[in-house]
């Protein structure tokens, strides 16, 4: 079993080295690490090409910023592992929890696994009420349109069997990728598991990038890709 870890990266000079070091030290499986630099302007790209070149297997450089969804699509296309997992470059999620995330797939009981920030796990940073409420609302709305019972649709931590991932045909370029993936997974009717994870969320002052426009787009994506409206 080989695990591919796709890391979309945009202006994460402060955290990318720690993320990559932890990916290498905390994940015991045979692994393929793919970084997609989404046209970083803060020195991240230069760091990846020099000091950190031994920390990954593939570095893909975007010459234009496409958003998280665009970076993930590029990384997914290059993946060769049996299982593919997503890791953000900002340390909000702990790479040490990836083995637990993929275990249901390894055990053969899941085709897809979501890491839930709302099902317990280890320590989680107390953060803004309205941001949490927004996540809860989007998850509820997504559940209504997919007939799933997820607790955290917007989570970064998602893992897939490679043959399932290849069926999704993703198109969203920014954070709308999360509800799009969820809706298209729901349409496949494959077994999905949730695993409780910790979460160390950043503030906007610390570099968090998602904003209210992304929330509006998420609502649009939930409706647009709903299995109820896309039965082909």
Structure description:
This protein has helices spanning 16-26, 44-49, 68-78, 98-106, 129-146, 162-165, 177-188, 212-224; strands at residues 2-9, 30-37, 58-61, 83-86, 112-116, 158-161, 192-196. Residues 203-207 have low confidence and may be disordered. A 7-stranded mixed beta sheet has the order 3-2-1-4-6-5-7, with helices on both faces. It is an alpha/beta fold and 232 residues long. It has a single domain (2-224), classed as Spore Coat Polysaccharide Biosynthesis Protein SpsA, Chain A (Alpha-Beta Complex). The chain is globular and about 45 Å long. Helix 2 (44-49) links the parallel strand 2 (30-37) and strand 3. Helix 7 (177-188) runs parallel beside helix 8.
Task: Supply database-style keywords.
single chain, 232 residues, alpha/beta, Spore Coat Polysaccharide Biosynthesis Protein SpsA, Chain A, 7-stranded mixed beta sheet, 8 helices, 7 strands, 16% strand, globular
């Amino acid at each position: 079993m080989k695990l591919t870890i796709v890391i979309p990266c945009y202006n994460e000079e402060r955290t990318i080295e720690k993320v990559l070091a932890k990916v290498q030290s905390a994940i015991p499986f045979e692994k393929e690490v793919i970084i997609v630099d989404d046209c970083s302007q803060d020195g991240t790209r230069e760091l990846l090409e020099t000091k950190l070149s031994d920390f990954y297997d593939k570095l893909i450089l975007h010459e234009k910023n496409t958003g998280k969804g665009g970076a993930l699509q590029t990384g997914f296309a290059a993946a060769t592992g049996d299982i593919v997992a997503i890791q953000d470059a900002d340390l909000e999620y702990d790479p040490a929890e990836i083995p637990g995330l993929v275990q249901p797939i390894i055990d053969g009981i899941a085709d897809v696994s979501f890491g839930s920030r709302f099902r317990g796990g280890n320590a989680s940073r107390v953060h803004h009420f309205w941001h949490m409420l927004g996540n809860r609302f989007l998850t509820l709305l997504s559940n209504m349109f997919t007939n799933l019972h997820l607790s955290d649709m917007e989570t970064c931590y998602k893992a897939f069997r490679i043959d399932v991932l290849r069926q999704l045909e993703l198109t969203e370029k920014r954070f709308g990728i999360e509800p799009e993936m969820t809706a298209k997974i729901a349409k496949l009717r494959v077994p999905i598991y949730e695993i409780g994870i910790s979460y160390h969320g950043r503030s906007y002052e610390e570099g968090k990038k998602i904003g209210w426009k992304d929330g509006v787009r998420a609502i649009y994506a939930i409706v647009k890709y709903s299995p109820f409206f896309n039965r082909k």
